[in-house]
Structure formats: structure tokens, C-alpha cells
Specification:
Zincin-like, mainly alpha, about 120 residues, about 10% strand, 3-stranded mixed sheet, 5 helices, single chain
Length: about 120
């Protein structure tokens, strides 16, 4: 893993590259329009210890520790999960269908995330 600069620039680059892979990978199933920005959180998100990421508008906020230690599959899952929340707030069947369209291997990424949960 690359050393993260104090300003998080390597983290932003990594997230953008992973987002580009997600976007390219789902192009034949779903179009992702517009620009997605990333914000790195160095503390809790919304004061919640367990929260790894959230989306507000076109900005996905992700914990710094998640960006630095998680494998690509888990970060792809997080990005797909947050993008699906643009269309569906609740974690219902429609939500998971959208996550699957964005990242078909989301179950693998979700499992990887759970294995790292105590380190984030």
C-alpha cells in the first residue's frame, strides 16, 4: 500500500481509480452520471464509530483507515453501496439489486469488509 500523505492525496487517487474501475465494470448494466467526489474522514463519520462511509449529494465520505487498509474489493463494495443510496434509502431488495448491478461481486467485497471491521 502506498504511504498516505498528510493531506490524504494518495487516498483520493486510490478512491478515484477504484471508482473508475467500478464505473467501467458496470457500464453494460447501469450508467453512473455526473461527478462523484470523495472526502476522507479522519475521525468518526456523524459521530458513529461503526460508520465506514456515507454519501451526501455527490460526495462519498470514507474513513481514512478504510482507504488505507481495505483491499480493493471491499472499497468497490463501499462505493457501490453508497451510490445505491442515491436511488434507495433503505436496505431493501431494490437497494441490493442496484448494488449488484453496480458491483456484481458485492457479496465478496462485503465479506472482506466484515473481516476488517475491527481495524477500521
Amino acid at each position: 500500500m502506498n504511504k498516505i500523505d498528510r493531506d490524504g492525496s494518495h487516498a483520493y487517487i486510490r478512491l478515484q481509480e477504484i471508482f473508475d474501475e467500478v464505473k467501467e465494470g458496470c457500464r453494460d448494466r447501469i450508467d453512473i452520471f455526473g461527478t462523484v467526489k470523495f472526502k476522507i474522514a479522519y475521525k468518526k463519520i456523524d459521530g458513529k464509530e461503526y460508520r465506514v462511509a456515507k454519501i451526501k449529494g455527490n460526495t462519498i465520505t470514507i474513513k481514512h483507515t478504510a482507504v488505507t487498509i481495505l483491499p480493493k474489493s471491499a472499497l468497490k463494495y463501499i462505493i457501490a453501496h453508497e451510490l445505491a443510496h442515491v436511488l434507495v434509502k433503505d436496505h431493501n431488495e431494490r437497494f441490493w439489486d442496484i448494488v449488484r448491478m453496480i458491483y456484481p461481486k458485492y457479496n465478496m467485497g462485503k465479506r472482506v469488509l466484515e473481516r476488517y471491521r475491527d481495524r477500521i
